[in-house]
Amino acid sequence: MKVKKGNGGAGGRRRQVFKSVDEACRVRDALNSDAGISQETVLDLFSAAGPTCAEEGRKDLLRGNPTCLCGLIPSKNQCRKKGLWAKSGEKSEPSERPHDKKRNPGQPVGIFNLGNTCYMSSALQLLFSVPQVRDAILASLGVEKTEGEGEDDAKVAHATHEVFAELEFSPLACMDPGSLAEALRLKTEMQQDPQEFLKLFQSLLESALERVGCQQLNGGMGGGVDCKMGNLELKEEWPRDGEVIQNQFGGGTSYVTICKECKGIPSSSFEVHNFLDLQLQVDQCQTLQESLDAYMAPCWLTGSNKYNCATCDRPTEAERRVLLRRLPPRLQITLSRFDYDFESGRKKKIRSPVKIPIDLDLSSCLEKTAEVLSSHSTKTGNLEESKNKSSKYTLTCILHHLGTSADCGHYVAQIRQPNGEWWLMDDELATLIGPSPDGNPNQTRKKTLKEKEEAKNGLFTSNSAYICIYSSEDEWQKYSRSKSQERGALFSELRGRVEEKIRKRINESENALAVVSDKINDRQSFVRGVLGCAGVKGIRDPDQWMASDWLVSCMDDEIEPTTIDNTGILCSHVCLDPKKIQSAAKRISAEAFEMLRARYDGAQKLSSKDVCKECLLGMCEDYLSANHEADTRSSILELLREFQEDSGVRNGGEEAFWVSKTWLQSWKKRTGPGAFSCSPTEPISCKHGGLEPERAAPRVCVPSHAWSYFKMMYGKQQQAESMEIDGEEGPGSVDRSVGEGGAQQEAVSGEVQGRASDKLVEFSTSGSETCARCSVEVSQEEDRQQMVKDMIRNVRSALPRLAQGYGLDIEPETKYFLWPKSWFVQWRKWINDKGRNETEKPPCMMEIGRGMLCACHSGQPGSSVLPPKVRRDRGKIVVDCDNADGLELLTEPEWDYLRGFHGGKDANLVPQTSCSLRICEHATKKLRGDCRAMDASTIELETDPPPCDQHFAELAVRPATPFSEVKFDVVLVTGETAARASASDRSARRRLGRRKVELNSTDTVHLLKMKIYKELMVALPNQRVFWGSEEMVDDARTVGESGLKVGMPINVLNARIIDDNDVGWLDEEVALRAVSSRQCTDKETGFANTVLLGGF
């Protein structure tokens, strides 16, 4: 329940314990007297003298009022959302079994999810929807073996029999498959693939049914077990257990190879390979028929993969294709929604929508088979006849995978009932859909007009359908009609056993609920009885104090406490803590306390007389001390104000003292011990022990009374800090030790005062003089700073373009000089700071100039830098602002001035790299220096000395230089040509957005894409990332290994595979992090260590 803060019933803020100094003094005197403090005084002190209010459901419990018990319980006939007083339906069930909700007539039974077993629930619903499989399993007794061969098969058969029996006959809306999961030894917390589970379970179920068998058909296990299903004589067409899976789902295909030259077909092409499902691709297929055509489409064996024809006796080109030879009554089609991405190294889901027909005609597939094999049938016998004589199918089951990731999601099934109605089976929930299936279950959007029109024509579109089961409708209806009477007679006893089992379970659940309900009613009656007598009417009536939190847990929490816990309101002396009375304690009657004590163990009696005297005395001392300090501070502030109005003139010869102006301003704003963490004179004390010049450390004078107060409070603060370090009690504690202990305390205090006096230097206005040495140093520093300011002012006036960072218009036949941009960044920061920080001054130009020349040739070194690229802009030639070379162009006057200023003693010896504009010969003859018609491809800068080829050849094979926390430009462009364009090729690039991202050379490409998504909101599946002309496709590589260098722009192309607003792809990121946090191996375990793969 809620616990509100409040005061003693007035509705404002909680007041102080002591109303005035006089009251605190009276309480202190009473505590020090022999009589002690009375109960009336204690109750009045903590606003607990009034009667207790305990109205039910009136308002929330007030912490500030010890006598308020309102709102601990609701009013009669009312309830709360949770806890002891919640509705019976909202309380947690005593059992973990699904709730016993009865199903409606005609409603299928749901399957309870045991954790992550939605794949098993959906697969079981698909199998249960096949009448032949369902009846074969129900007809088996499912006798469970405990020893010997086939133990696991018998357990699986018995558990499957139980599950199917409840799905068929249970009166409840859902059933618990825990017995089957236990028999299969499944890990219920792991998500699995339903197609893999269905294939393995069908094989295991077929083996289990062969071993256990139907007692009526096989004469019993071990020859002599009586039939408990009745004495009904079954007909031959009744499904036999061991053959039901193959008879219903088993089909046949042939892999046919036809030689291109002799048109011959080898005998191996007539072999029939059994299948239980057809796996069709959905990528690049818009309809299910296109997926079937792609499955049966021919492929050619050519080149090194030629077919070794026995008739031609040499390798020849051949055609190879898959042909359907035998159609099953139940055609199970698996759409390959999951694929392995070799680039990312993990699974991905294919979300391509596919149009799925309700009615499917495979006559064209059979005609193609007959066409290919008819001319060769005489060599190998007649074509094999299908178990299903009809090639027309109708859709009866769909299994969907909901979600965008291959590593997580949810599986649901859509089942068609014999009456033609479709039901959505979402674990334990069964929802009626209607006469046609829904291509996208659990979606809230409405169908479009096109989708509605297609649904009328027996076609629906789905991007989540994973497994589809088509049934031969004639065979299904024929079986249902002929078996309806036999099923009713055969399974009458089984129905009774299932209903009896469910009835027994419901009774057990109801009995458990009745026991819990009785306990809750008993506890509620007890709580109301305690609260009814908890009020204390008179001030002299016997009372007890209880912790508020424990009272709330006792009277409102769902879980009942076992012991009384009042430790929250006890002080260190194991008495009632006066500091906790108003905030954490409640006063109740002695009668109510005895009732609680009789029901719960452990209780220390805490009456109003048990208030800790020592703690209460400490509260008095603290209040009086704080009140005295507040009054003293107010008087000092008033004194300083009057002294300031008198312009610091001393009254009556009163001496004044210097303190730091900054410290005094800080003290006026702050209160408490932190105001004296620094000495009042420490900022104005020089290193020689004298007074700092006022120009370096501003100061003000204060009267002697204020100085004495500052000195006293600073000493107390230093002493308190020293005691905390030495493990003492802290400030405000009173040392009443005598003798040797007292002398030791005085020694400690003297030592602390000595350490404090070292920092607290006294400077009187009459006897203290400014330190002469410091005055000289301050004057010299002022002169130096003024000289630097004048010098920087001259530099800014001489180099205004460089100081402001403006660009430069390049003229033909003009000499320019190159210098690193990084040097100018530091140079501009230094001049903008007016030279205050000498460490920010840029380095000498001598070493920088040497680094711009190669070390390959000692005599005539070449340039180790390439000139920046230039472009034409509005009739002028300028440096490309996006160039990644990091070089600045300087005119010759700028270079001479800069070299003379920063070059040092040998400024003329600073190595220089110059450049000039070079125009192609054909352009020179045509333009004659006219820059307005120049193309970017006809102009470039040429350096002197020229670039060293050997240096750049070595640089190309040299590993990239590591970088850390470097910001790169990320540009969103349109078109692959623009993405692969260089930084200077502005004609090919169209920007859609530009941001900066911070990278390390060790960051992966995947991390870069996540940062791009954060800045530009382009989903990861849509991102194509380029730097230079190369596309980064390996997300696992680092950006350093991929060739990213400092200064290179990063181009991003939006492929628009999915909607950028669709954040479903983030599920995959979450799933991958979950797998990584569990430290799973890269290899998937699947159904290893389960009965489906041979057990342990």
Entry summary:
This protein has 1096 residues and is of the alpha+beta class.
Structural class given helices, strands, pairing? alpha+beta
Q: Average pLDDT value?
A: 77
Overall geometry:
flat
Radius of gyration: 46 Å
Uncertain stretches of 5 or more adjacent residues: 2-14, 90-98, 142-148, 214-238, 377-383, 728-756, 921-934, 982-991, 1074-1083
Helix content bin:
25-40%
Largest sheet: 8 strands, mixed
Q: Tally the helices.
A: 32
How many E strands? Answer: 38
Q: What distance lies between the first and last C-alpha atoms, to the nearest angstrom?
A: 50 Å
SSE layout and pairings?
Blueprint: E1 3-4, H1 21-32, H2 39-45, E2 61-62, E3 110-111, H3 118-128, H4 131-139, H5 151-169, E4 174-175, H6 178-184, H7 194-212, H8 215-218, H9 244-249, E5 251-259, E6 273-275, E7 278-281, H10 288-296, E8 299-301, E9 307-309, E10 314-316, E11 318-326, E12 330-336, E13 338-341, E14 346-349, E15 354-357, E16 359-361, H11 363-373, H12 377-380, E17 392-402, E18 410-416, E19 422-426, E20 429-434, H13 449-456, E21 459-462, E22 465-471, H14 473-490, H15 492-532, E23 543-547, H16 548-556, H17 581-584, E24 585-589, H18 590-599, H19 613-645, E25 656-660, H20 661-669, E26 699-703, H21 704-725, H22 740-759, H23 772-798, H24 800-804, E27 809-810, E28 815-820, H25 821-832, H26 845-851, E29 870-873, E30 876-879, E31 887-891, H27 892-902, E32 914-919, H28 921-927, E33 939-944, H29 949-957, E34 966-973, H30 976-980, E35 991-999, H31 1005-1016, E36 1023-1027, E37 1030-1032, E38 1050-1054, H32 1066-1077
Parallel strand pairs: 1-2, 3-4, 7-12, 34-38
Antiparallel strand pairs: 5-6, 5-11, 8-11, 9-10, 12-22, 13-14, 15-21, 16-17, 17-18, 17-22, 18-19, 19-20, 23-24, 25-26, 27-30, 28-31, 28-32, 29-30, 32-33, 34-35, 36-37, 36-38
Helix pairs in contact: 1-19, 3-7, 4-14, 5-6, 5-7, 5-15, 15-18, 21-22
